[in-house]
Amino acid sequence: MSDDDRANLLALYHQMARGRALEESVVALMNSREFRGFYHPGRGQEAVQAGVCSVLQKDDYLMYAHRGLTYLTAKGMDPALILGDFLGRVGGSTGGLGAGTVHCVDIKHGIMGQGGTLGSSFTLTGGLALASQVLKQGRIATAFFGDGASARGTFLEAGVTIAAWKLPVLWICENNGWAVSARLADVQGTEDIAPRAAALGFYTEVVDGQDVQAVQAAARRAADVARNGRPAFIEAKTTRVEGHYSGDTQPYRDKDDVASAKDRDPMKLAREVLIGWGVSDEELTRIRDDSAGEMAAAESRARLTPEPTRERIFEGLWV
Amino acid sequence: MTVTEITYAWAINHALDEEFARDPRVVLFGQDVGRMGGVFGVTRNLYDKYGAERVRDVSIVEHFVVGGAVGAALGGLRPIVETQFADFLLVAGDESFHKLPKWRYMHGGAFTVPVVVRAPSGIQGGVGAEHSQCPEAHYWHTPGVKIAVPSTPADAKGLLKSAIRDDNPVIFFESRRLYRVKGPVSSDPELVVPFGKANIARAGTDLTVVAWSGMMPEVLEAAEVLAAEGLSLEVIDPRTLVPFDWETVATSVRKTSRLLIVHEAPLTMGPGAEIASRAADELFSELDAPVRRLGGPDVPIPQNMALEQFCYPQVSEIVLAARELIRW
What we know:
Chain A is an alpha/beta fold and 319 residues long. Chain A has twelve helices and seven strands. Chain A has one domain (3-306): Thiamin diphosphate (ThDP)-binding fold, Pyr/PP domains (Rossmann fold, 3-Layer(aba) Sandwich). Chain B is an alpha/beta fold and 328 residues long. Chain B has two domains: 3-186, Rossmann fold, CATH 3.40.50; 199-326, Rossmann fold (3-Layer(aba) Sandwich), CATH 3.40.50.920. Chain B is built from twelve helices and 14 strands. Chain B has a seven-stranded mixed sheet, with helices on both faces. The longest helix of chain B is centred in the N-terminal third of the chain and has 15 residues, at 8-22. Classes of the chains: A alpha/beta (319), B alpha/beta (328).
């Protein structure tokens, strides 16, 4: 363990803490009924998102998924833009149209939005990577998705074309074993997603998604491969602590399964490593407090902008 | 600059060629559009001329064709894609009804999505219920996408050039029955036909007929038949359904006091219903006869060529309907 290793893991811990603090702000807005839409908590999956985004360049494309917020802030997006979307303010990234995460957008950080129909990112990342290839930009196009979305037909259609065209694509499957109430093995007949990507010709990595350092190392290898013109795939075995949406009490799930997911909390695991490396508990507490403070300040900034009026629905359809 | 007689298919090819030459961000992909030059020969020579980087064949991947085009547009290209048959566009339902028309709006107007989807449509050659449809009403019902329905070689070229230069997504319906029809087309690379501007294909006084794309030959022939009887049809080709040039239609109806809409798509909930409804709303006091629609019968299109001809309005039906309205 070098000073660089420690600084790197502290930075990853900070990104996980920021994502979790933002999620806690959102849940508080739901509890106070200020945000009345749906939110899909990403607690337990922060290491995958922080680890992968830590190796991306600022202009690499990100198509995020619906679960959690860590990839957005780790990619560089201002949390005030995200909270503005939750609060339905014109200062949100969608100018007051969005409500929640699925359409957050930040072009200057390569965050190209997200579709409400899962699995649509497969084809869109293929197109983004095609643009990067034709325009010789050297950007890679990343998509995060769950094990459920990996069943979509778009996976195959985009996958074969991306492989044929040698596009700079990196797909990250956050395999938490659950698609809403369905267990992966029950509905897909397997626990493993990476073999189907390997069969298409993608470079694949399978990694413990709770170990942020392992995710980062796998992502560095995979991103290098993708940038050099062979599509790459990471299957991160991860855990879903909360229900499908905030408020889902998960009656379909064993208590033991939830308990073991909590036990594999990626921030807890990273903390144990850092303490072992001589980092003080106070420093880690300060990182978490700073993250919470950052999100509180972001929320205040988001509140400074007004709510949209009816005219907003007619704006922006056409160029 | 010259004007030559070329086919509708070749006019589309010229538009593609000129726009490829003008803008290096233009790319084309779809089944068989590359080496083969398209199953209808529309994209011939482009692969040889512009190379494998910009002209790409794909497998049977309609989801990717449309979704990949949206992604490529977000990344700064100006993709043109072909779905081989308009029916296949429906395979890519999520991409064509959701991603293509909604991506810009859903994200607060942050993006432009300059995609052109070329969709060869209509009844021709006994290809059956899943290769013969005119699904323009489905997309007219979906806010966020422009729709072109050219009926002449010159319009096909000029409208496609407008579509490629447009920052909005466009579905470009090409009539397969018209591919081999010739007409005068200018070689001027800057001659574009604007969207939302109807063409008065034939001036007249007794009845306004609105028709487009593959129905135009039948309608113009019916107008000739009726002219011999001293009845005068004004035939309006809107050229694009989105945007729709309502003013030209309304001006004509104010003159003729009668309106007939003719389209190939099935009658029920077809595009004519929208035009008729708007006429009822806005031109009620101008009308001397009911607004009439002619469309395909509400059946899937049989593969038997002897039967498929009954699945879009024929000249005799148009003549009968027009005569009845004029004599109302």
